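[#protein-structures] MJ: dropping Endonuclease here for a structure pass
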Amino acid sequence: MSVARIRRWKVWAAVSAAVVGLALPTLTAAPAAATTNAYDTTYYKNAVGKTGTSLKSALHTIISSQSKISYDAVWNALKVTDQDPNNTNNVILLYSGVSRSKSLSGGDVGDWNREHVWAQSHGSFGTSAGPGTDLHHLRACDVQVNSIRGNKDWDFGGSAVSGASGSYTDSNSFEPRNADKGDVARMILYMAVRYEGDDAWADLEPNESTTNGSVPWHGRLSVLKQWNEQDPPSAFEERRNDIIFNSYQGNRNPFIDHPEWVEAIW
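AK: finished. structure tokens for Endonuclease:
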């Protein structure tokens, strides 16, 4: 076949593929680029430059040094960490993005309460000081939306969640709205690094299941990694990380400071 005929055939093939709707390769999100952080030479100095299990171990040692608060104290802490930057009387609710009065904290319809992003039942840690009160995975959330999420694992798909536009759920998984996907991923993976079973609590780990029940695992890791890349840390997350570090626990979520460390570990 002549060069000219080969070129014409390639053009015809490309046009035909477009016309008949043949599947073409899809683009995937690029891994999070390496970042630098003001804490790299101090707080993270023993982790910078490491990968894999060495990085995970170094970060565990770093972030395990923390102060603990009571579950009752979480109410007032969330009024500070989750404050609406445009209205100091309100908090921003996870999964819905709704701004709601700080005074509406409680258990009634229309209230907001304390959502455990790493579900309490996945490891049976309850609300005791430790993973049950760790502000790095506790968020203000609408009472009814919180109930719908329950202790489900994380995945795409399902039916629309009433009261949380852009969020979806099915019988065993929950998909947060796009603006919260990265937040959820980084909170879950923080918990997996912070709680390694070397204290009074279970070894929390991510996996690929959406039927984890009461075992100390949360899925799906591949989806959480995708969400981390899809939704980079926001100013709200970064401010929250700083407040928890400076005013409450004295430790940081490393995946907000270095989202590329997710891929470096997993």
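MJ: nice. The two ends are 48 Å apart (CA to CA).
AK: one more thing. The chain has one domain: 37-265.
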